[in-house]
Amino acid sequence: MPTxxxxxxxxxxxEEVSAAxxxxxxxxxxxxxxxxxxxxxxIRLIASELITNAVVHGQxxxxxxxxxxxxxxxxxxxxxxxxxxxxxxxxxxDEGGRGLAxxxxxxxxxxxxxxxxxxxxxxxxxxxxxxxxxxxxxLRKFFTARSNPxxxxxxxxxxxxxxx
Length: 164
Hints:
alpha+beta; 5 helices
């Protein structure tokens, strides 16, 4: 089964986090995944924490990659700060410092790797399998757009397919 992939590029401003979090959930729904409220909240929380950390502790542009295979979603965030993300121990009255602990708690797996120009922080979330007819519709839309020479790269960006 192929992996569905989507990319979201941010300039790295704090004001972009909320919209990016919505785009992540919207993309998963566009892939035909039947999200219940609990799974939606987990995706929002993990996306929000990873994106916020990249914006607050990173430098410059942030890129979000989503990888979907039936039953799982990987949220990957790249920034240009090579420093390792640190899980802190927040006090009762601290406003921050719990994000990576929450990601670690709710994700099936999570981690980070240094990359050439910074780091890649990721988390895998268990999600319901998509409705088969929706997945077929997404793949049909992809191949139709791919074979159309009049489709611009920006229109095509929201629907990307990679074979894993």
